[in-house]
Specification:
It is a single chain. The protein is an alpha/beta fold. Helices cover 26% and strands 22% of the residues. It has helices at residues 61-77, 99-106, 125-132, 146-153, 161-174, and strands spanning 13-19, 23-28, 35-36, 50-51, 84-87, 113-117, 136-140, 178-186, 203-209. It is globular and about 50 Å long. The structure holds iron/sulfur cluster.
């Protein structure tokens, strides 16, 4: 995939919007729709059209910085508060090869950085290194059994649930900032195994799909 031009990236920064766990969150859309390693049954963005586990550069980091800065300045003019700059794209945030670099340059703005991820690549060392730079990381855990994971998240064939769960444990133990977890409870899904990963999570959020 070619790096998109700035004109294509008009929605790279949006909000701020109120968030249950992040306060006023200014969103960063660093992934083109709909590029993801999952195709969750409940996804509000519809079917995954670019299913991949390959990290790529989608936009120029300087374009993302420019757009976010513009949005932050406009928000400041309206005297609105921003609690977090949040990577929450139209796909999986960590597929962006420049994620770590973008977090580093966005820190110049002086607002904490959050990343929402489906955690599917968290077993990779480069992934953990990138996420370590954030102030808050939200990890999706919808299932801890293979059967439920495949039925709810419909993962890319390269992914292995045991590697992901191990990666989550390692990351949560090493990460010094805030880590939270989100789980979608899906109607008619039977949770026969309790959620007990034995990891440090600051907050847990459940969302119910009906
Ligand atoms: S991980 Fe997120 S973006 Fe990807 S399919 Fe699931 S809900 Fe949609």
């Amino acid at each position: 995939m070619e790096v998109a031009n700035l004109e294509d990236g008009e929605t790279m920064a949006f909000g701020p919007v109120p968030s249950r766990c992040l306060g006023k969150s200014l969103g960063i859309n660093n992934i083109p729709p709909k590029t993801c390693s999952y195709s969750c049954v409940y996804c509000q963005l519809g079917k995954t059209t670019n299913m991949t586990t390959e990290r790529q550069i989608f936009y120029r980091s300087e374009d993302i910085l420019k757009e976010v800065r513009k949005k932050v300045d406009a928000t400041a003019t309206r005297k609105e508060k921003v609690d977090y700059l949040t990577f929450v794209p139209d796909g999986e945030s960590t597929l962006d090869l420049n994620l770590g670099k973008e977090i580093s340059i966005l820190k110049q703005i002086g607002i904490p950085i959050a990343v929402l991820t489906n955690a599917s690549l968290i077993w990779r060392d480069d992934m953990k290194e990138d996420l370590m730079k954030a102030n808050l990381v939200s990890l999706k855990v919808d299932a801890i059994t293979e059967d439920l994971w495949i039925r709810i998240n419909r993962p890319h064939e390269n992914l292995r649930l045991n590697e992901i769960l191990e990666g989550i444990k390692e990351f949560a133990n090493e990460f010094n900032a805030k880590v939270i977890s989100e789980t979608m409870f899906v109607d008619a899904a039977v949770f026969t195994v309790p959620f007990a990963l034995g990891i440090r999570i600051n907050s847990f959020y459940a969302v119910v799909a009906v």
